[in-house]
Design goal:
By secondary structure, the protein is α/β, with parallel strands linked by helices. It is built from 15 helices and 17 strands.
Length: 499
């Protein structure tokens, strides 16, 4: 009733204006005109020809104007990409070369969908039934955007993995962009409606000024030299680096060799997310690693290899080394068998260690010794006891990677004699057991690393009471990095200083 009353009031207001003095004066003046402003007999062939000529020129200019609109859109997209690409590379270690093209392809349907959405909201407030056609159009546009997004270029080579850029490179890049923006600043000024398409015309015909060009070249050269110097400094470090990543209850150890090579010891977790693509690969990219030269998988437990498929998809990865016991512990339908099937289906190289051959290899200046398992373990032995144990020695210092070995394997290793190591990654995620305490005393490390969940590091206090051992838990301390060189053994943690 209130709405209908409002409409009646509006109609009365219009009727009053129709009979008012202003309307009467307008009718009087129109009646005084005794003929049309332009009579048919006044239209000759010349005006018609001019009209046709203007229509032809307008039609001929449409492709040119459309090209300018598309070019301007590409220029805006490329500018946005150039401004954000270094930041994306810094945080996510990736660059998408096809970003500007993807933006151009999606700009029209996204704009239409936004406009239709606002129209549906406004019209729905008046009449929900009248907004139904717009809602249907929104659904169609949404499906079109999804189809376009699925068809757009993605993956390699459109998305490339890159190392984190240096500060000098970032400064040089943005200095070049600033000089370019200053040089072409006229193109960014607001234009009138009739001249807005002239923005794509060439800049001033007087040529580029010398100062901006010189500054751009100097900044680019400084960025390139700074980035090369940083990379050269990293490559020249004669250091063996081991990083135990924080993956919850699992194990992923990155080994960076002095010659620049990279190995991986295990790549798994019991977490529900893919640690290969979300933890290991981003860490490797942040270190400037573009490929993994090889992966050692200790044994057939899922929390030691669950991230391997994701890592192989994210980064070029060398052969995966398994032990014969891994194959024996991979019955049909098991996670270990599924891993083997995935690797074989992808054509990825898999190597099975010959436990009867030499136990020592040299790689990148590092001595890699396989100390466990032996070739004659009984068939009923548990998977943990078959873990591949490696001792890496460099510059007179060593680290011991133990997988999930338990009582039997630890006792067997201690019975062999000396097994000293400066760094020990605790067996079976540091699970408290008497044999592990004796094993740590036998190895005599100065640093122990536990790869476990947050809060599990409380068990490390039993190792630190003497004051001789520094202990770290990846769940509490974050990723733990140890660097072995001729002079020192350095250790650092992402979140704390250990115990």
């Amino acid at each position: 009733p209130a709405a209908s009353g409002g409409w009646r009031a509006l109609v009365r207001w219009v009727e009053d204006r129709r009979h008012g003095p202003l309307a009467a004066e307008l009718r009087r003046r129109l009646a005084a005109i005794d003929r049309p402003v332009v009579a048919p007999k006044d239209i000759g062939p010349l005006p018609v020809w001019r009209l046709a000529s203007r229509l032809r020129d307008a039609a001929g200019g449409l492709p040119r104007r459309a090209g300018r609109v598309i070019g301007l859109s590409i220029a805006v997209s490329v500018s946005a990409w150039a401004a954000t690409a270094p930041l994306v590379a810094w945080h996510f270690h990736q660059i998408q070369w096809a970003g500007p093209l993807n933006t151009l392809a999606l700009s029209l349907p996204v704009t239409l969908m936004i406009d239709a959405g606002f129209a549906a909201i406004l019209l729905g407030a008046i009449s929900p039934e009248a907004a139904l056609p717009l809602k249907g159009a929104l659904f169609v546009l949404q499906e079109a955007i999804l189809r376009i997004a699925e068809a757009l270029p993605r993956g390699y080579p459109w998305i490339m993995s890159v190392s984190r850029p240096s500060w000098a490179g970032l400064v040089g890049w943005y200095a070049v962009l600033a000089c370019a923006a200053w040089r072409f600043r006229r193109m960014a000024q607001p234009l009138s409606r009739e001249h807005r398409f002239e923005a794509l015309k060439a800049p001033e015909k007087t040529g580029l000024r010398a100062k901006p060009v010189a500054v751009m070249l100097v900044c680019a050269a400084a960025g390139a030299i700074g980035g090369s110097w940083a990379a050269w400094g990293r490559d020249k470090d004669a250091v063996l680096t081991m990083t135990a990543l924080s993956v919850g209850r699992g194990l992923a150890v990155v080994i960076e060799l002095p010659d620049g090579g990279t190995l991986l010891y295990d790549a798994g977790s019991d977490a529900r997310y893919d640690v290969g693509s979300s933890v290991i690969a981003p860490f490797l990219r942040s270190r400037g690693v573009q490929q993994v030269d090889g992966v050692y998988v200790s044994h057939a437990n899922l929390d030691h290899f669950s991230g391997l498929p994701g890592l192989i998809e994210a980064l070029p990865t060398g052969p995966v080394l398994l032990t014969p016991y891994f194959l024996h512990g991979a019955p049909t339908g098991s996670p270990a068998r599924r891993l083997i099937d995935v690797l074989c289906a992808a054509g990825h190289p898999v190597e099975v260690a010959d436990l009867k051959s030499a136990t020592v290899t040299e790689r990148g200046g590092v001595r890699i010794e396989r100390v466990w398992p032996p070739p004659d373990l009984p068939s009923h032995v548990e998977a943990n006891e078959t873990s591949l144990v490696l001792r890496l020695t460099y510059a007179g210092k060593s680290m011991l990677l133990t997988g999930d070995i338990e009582d039997e394997a630890q006792q067997a290793l201690m019975s062999r004699g000396e097994l000293d190591a400066d760094v020990l990654v605790l067996p079976h995620h540091g699970s408290p057991r008497a044999s592990t305490d004796r094993f740590v005393e036998h190895v005599r490390p100065s640093i122990v690393v536990q790869s476990a969940r947050e809060g599990a590091g409380a068990v490390l206090e039993r190792f630190t009471r003497s004051g001789r051992i520094r202990a770290y838990n990846t769940g509490d301390d974050g990723a733990v990095t140890v660097r072995l060189s001729e002079s020192v053994v350095e250790v650092s943690a992402w979140q704390s200083k250990g115990r």
